[in-house]
Amino acid sequence: MLVDWCYSQTSTDGTFVPLKAISGDYQVWYPAEIIDKATPTTATDVYMAAWSMVYAMGGEKVDQLTTKMPRAFRAYFASCLEANYKVRPDDAFGLLAETDELLERFGEPYYPRRFREFVLPTK
Question: Which residues contact 100 (CB under 8 A, 6 or more apart)?
Protein backbone atom coordinates (compact mmCIF):
# COMPACT_ATOMS: atom_id res chain seq x y z
CA MET A 1 0.00 0.00 0.00
CA LEU A 2 1.35 3.39 -0.92
CA VAL A 3 0.46 6.09 1.60
CA ASP A 4 0.65 9.86 1.17
CA TRP A 5 2.16 10.23 -2.27
CA CYS A 6 2.36 14.01 -2.58
CA TYR A 7 3.36 15.95 -5.65
CA SER A 8 1.83 19.34 -4.91
CA GLN A 9 3.47 22.35 -3.40
CA THR A 10 2.03 25.66 -2.33
CA SER A 11 3.67 29.01 -1.83
CA THR A 12 3.44 31.00 1.40
CA ASP A 13 0.35 32.81 0.07
CA GLY A 14 -1.44 29.49 -0.57
CA THR A 15 -1.18 29.47 -4.37
CA PHE A 16 0.00 26.38 -6.20
CA VAL A 17 3.59 26.31 -7.40
CA PRO A 18 4.42 23.21 -9.47
CA LEU A 19 7.50 21.25 -8.48
CA LYS A 20 10.21 20.86 -11.10
CA ALA A 21 10.73 17.17 -10.44
CA ILE A 22 9.54 15.51 -13.63
CA SER A 23 12.17 13.18 -15.01
CA GLY A 24 12.34 13.28 -18.79
CA ASP A 25 12.87 9.52 -18.89
CA TYR A 26 9.65 8.98 -16.96
CA GLN A 27 7.47 11.75 -18.36
CA VAL A 28 4.98 9.15 -19.66
CA TRP A 29 4.32 8.18 -16.04
CA TYR A 30 2.76 11.53 -15.22
CA PRO A 31 -0.89 12.44 -15.81
CA ALA A 32 -1.74 15.34 -18.12
CA GLU A 33 -2.49 17.72 -15.27
CA ILE A 34 1.13 17.49 -14.10
CA ILE A 35 2.60 17.93 -17.58
CA ASP A 36 0.26 20.90 -18.10
CA LYS A 37 1.33 22.35 -14.72
CA ALA A 38 -2.26 22.37 -13.50
CA THR A 39 -3.04 22.06 -9.81
CA PRO A 40 -2.76 18.42 -8.70
CA THR A 41 -5.75 16.84 -6.98
CA THR A 42 -6.29 13.67 -5.03
CA ALA A 43 -7.08 12.09 -8.41
CA THR A 44 -3.47 12.89 -9.39
CA ASP A 45 -2.22 10.85 -6.45
CA VAL A 46 -4.54 7.99 -7.45
CA TYR A 47 -3.14 8.06 -11.00
CA MET A 48 0.48 8.02 -9.84
CA ALA A 49 -0.10 5.24 -7.30
CA ALA A 50 -2.06 3.15 -9.84
CA TRP A 51 0.60 3.55 -12.51
CA SER A 52 3.28 2.49 -10.02
CA MET A 53 1.28 -0.66 -9.27
CA VAL A 54 0.68 -1.41 -12.96
CA TYR A 55 4.39 -1.05 -13.61
CA ALA A 56 5.22 -3.33 -10.67
CA MET A 57 2.80 -5.91 -12.16
CA GLY A 58 4.57 -5.86 -15.54
CA GLY A 59 2.83 -3.01 -17.37
CA GLU A 60 5.01 -0.91 -19.63
CA LYS A 61 2.65 1.79 -20.88
CA VAL A 62 -0.20 3.49 -19.09
CA ASP A 63 -2.56 3.07 -22.02
CA GLN A 64 -1.72 -0.62 -22.47
CA LEU A 65 -2.41 -2.53 -19.28
CA THR A 66 -0.62 -5.84 -19.21
CA THR A 67 -2.61 -8.86 -20.36
CA LYS A 68 -0.89 -10.83 -17.60
CA MET A 69 -3.08 -8.95 -15.16
CA PRO A 70 -6.49 -10.48 -14.35
CA ARG A 71 -9.38 -8.75 -16.15
CA ALA A 72 -10.85 -7.42 -12.89
CA PHE A 73 -7.57 -5.68 -12.09
CA ARG A 74 -7.30 -4.24 -15.61
CA ALA A 75 -10.74 -2.65 -15.23
CA TYR A 76 -9.87 -1.34 -11.77
CA PHE A 77 -6.59 0.21 -12.91
CA ALA A 78 -8.08 1.54 -16.15
CA SER A 79 -10.49 3.66 -14.10
CA CYS A 80 -7.61 4.95 -11.96
CA LEU A 81 -5.61 5.84 -15.07
CA GLU A 82 -8.32 7.83 -16.85
CA ALA A 83 -6.72 10.73 -18.73
CA ASN A 84 -9.36 13.18 -17.50
CA TYR A 85 -8.82 13.71 -13.78
CA LYS A 86 -12.43 14.86 -13.39
CA VAL A 87 -13.71 11.33 -14.07
CA ARG A 88 -10.83 9.55 -12.33
CA PRO A 89 -11.51 8.19 -8.80
CA ASP A 90 -10.30 10.53 -6.08
CA ASP A 91 -11.32 8.71 -2.90
CA ALA A 92 -8.36 6.68 -1.65
CA PHE A 93 -10.35 5.01 1.13
CA GLY A 94 -13.06 3.98 -1.36
CA LEU A 95 -10.38 2.56 -3.63
CA LEU A 96 -8.87 0.68 -0.70
CA ALA A 97 -12.25 -0.98 -0.10
CA GLU A 98 -12.45 -1.88 -3.82
CA THR A 99 -8.91 -3.26 -3.66
CA ASP A 100 -9.82 -5.44 -0.69
CA GLU A 101 -12.88 -6.76 -2.57
CA LEU A 102 -10.71 -7.65 -5.57
CA LEU A 103 -8.05 -9.29 -3.43
CA GLU A 104 -10.65 -11.23 -1.46
CA ARG A 105 -11.94 -12.73 -4.73
CA PHE A 106 -8.42 -14.02 -5.44
CA GLY A 107 -7.91 -15.35 -1.90
CA GLU A 108 -4.58 -16.47 -0.45
CA PRO A 109 -1.86 -15.23 -0.59
CA TYR A 110 -3.40 -11.90 -1.60
CA TYR A 111 -6.15 -11.70 0.97
CA PRO A 112 -6.36 -10.84 3.77
CA ARG A 113 -3.83 -8.06 3.44
CA ARG A 114 -0.88 -8.34 5.77
CA PHE A 115 1.77 -5.90 6.85
CA ARG A 116 5.10 -6.87 5.35
CA GLU A 117 7.97 -4.92 6.79
CA PHE A 118 10.37 -3.48 4.25
CA VAL A 119 13.83 -3.00 5.69
CA LEU A 120 16.71 -1.47 3.79
CA PRO A 121 20.07 -2.98 4.67
CA THR A 122 22.51 -0.68 6.41
CA LYS A 123 26.27 -0.72 6.20
Answer: 111, 113
Whether the pTM exceeds 0.90: the reply is no
pLDDT above 80 for 73: yes
- Bridge partner list, 64: 61
Task: Give the Å distances, CA to CA, from 27 to 14, 49, 82, 85.
Answer: 27, 15, 16, 17
29 neighbors 48 (Cβ within 8 angstroms):
yes
Is residue 11, in this structure, part of any structural domain at all? no
At 86, is the secondary structure helix, strand, or coil? coil
Q: 97 lies in which domain range?
A: 41-106
